[in-house]
Design a protein that fits this description.
Largest sheet: 4 strands, parallel
Distance between the termini: 25 Å
CATH superfamily: NAD(P)-binding Rossmann-like Domain
Low-confidence stretches: none
Helix content: 40-55%
Order of helices and strands: HEEHEHEEHEEHEEHEHEHHEHH
Radius of gyration: 19 Å
CATH architecture: 3-Layer(aba) Sandwich
Number of helices: 11
Strand order of the largest sheet: 3-4-6-10
CATH class: Alpha Beta
Shape: globular
Oligomer: single chain
Number of strands: 12
Strand content: 15-25%
CATH topology: Rossmann fold
């Protein structure tokens, strides 16, 4: 929100009832949920661009819940954008739409497994496909695929990592030796800002990731040091971690095992060429900002 405001955009936020929206300073807030396309249209009234970042990202959620939130919810957003007369819809998808138990080494947008692994990846893919085919002359649709999201204010991964750290340490599957694609929250904002103005075909999709290549061990070690958490712990090989998951003897979900135990690295040349995307925040800068945010949340000067 702040990044969009800083860039000069007037922002209307669509928030769930009871959610903590105190950080949305000088932002018009409309209360509602994804199940109500009419309320969504009210929120989008007089808006030129709809940015859809809502949904469920918990891989342990049941398939029906994921379907209602991620697929049906996205369909409601599309219909609301059309009803409100928005000229553009930007959908925050995720790199997990191509998740499978194998390496994704510098994949570009046209590479994909026959079927992604898990209900979360499947519903995210279905939602993205809805966005891609729903564009028209009047509504241009764009999907952005961030990798593992991290940074100040993240509510998707940080709480789980913190719980892991408190319970023995973040687990490094296979010793954390595989490449891990990440996307800092501030770099997602940059991608959105570029997507708002870019003259690209409707239905376009782009990977948007951080510049630095890193292995899981280095990323999680630096993250834990930044936040004052216990150092990550070495886990067993990927096949063993997956076996423990299937036997329900692990706190990790199979999706998390694959993320940490298989190479993920994505080609962002399409986003750079067509959107003008540049991940302006380095990992060093992002860690510094994350540490400052965490200290602020804890009331530490």
């Amino acid at each position: 929100m702040r990044g969009l405001q800083t860039a000069g955009h007037d922002v209307v936020a669509y928030v769930r009832e009871g959610s903590d929206s105190r950080s949305l300073v000088d932002v018009e807030r409309i209360v509602g949920d994804l199940a109500d396309p009419n309320r969504l249209a009210v929120a989008a009234d007089n808006c030129e661009v709809m940015i859809h970042a809502a949904g469920i990202a918990d891989p342990a959620a049941d398939r029906e819940t994921l379907g209602w939130a991620n697929v049906a919810g996205t369909e409601n957003v599309i219909n609301a954008a059309k009803k409100a007369g928005c000229r553009r819809m930007i959908h925050i998808s995720c790199a997990d739409v191509t998740l499978y138990d194998g390496p994704r080494s510098f994949w570009h947008e046209d590479e994909a497994p026959t079927r992604p692994v898990g209900a979360l990846a499947e519903t995210k893919l279905y939602a993205e496909e809805l966005v891609r085919v729903s564009g028209s002359r009047d509504l241009r649709t764009i999907a952005l695929r961030p990798a593992l999201v991290w940074g100040p204010g993240d509510t998707t991964h940080l709480p789980g990592w913190e719980a892991e750290a408190a319970n023995g340490g973040v687990c490094l599957v296979g010793g954390g030796k595989k490449l891990l694609a990440t996307t800092y929250t501030g770099n997602i904002v940059q991608a959105v800002l570029r997507a708002i103005e870019a003259d690209v075909p409707t239905g376009s999709v782009y990977y948007v990731v951080d510049t630095e290549l890193t292995v899981a061990r280095d990323f999680f070690t630096e993250l834990c040091q930044t936040l004052g958490w216990r150092a990550p712990r070495k886990g067993g090989p990927r096949w063993w971690a997956m076996a423990l998951c299937r036997a329900r003897l692990s706190s990790l979900h199979p999706t998390q095992v694959i993320r940490r135990g298989q190479t993920s690295a994505f080609d962002v040349s399409k986003a750079k060429t067509e959107l003008g995307y540049e991940p302006v925040v380095t990992r060093e800068q992002g860690m510094a900002e994350l540490g400052a945010w965490a200290r602020q949340m804890q009331g530490v000067p």
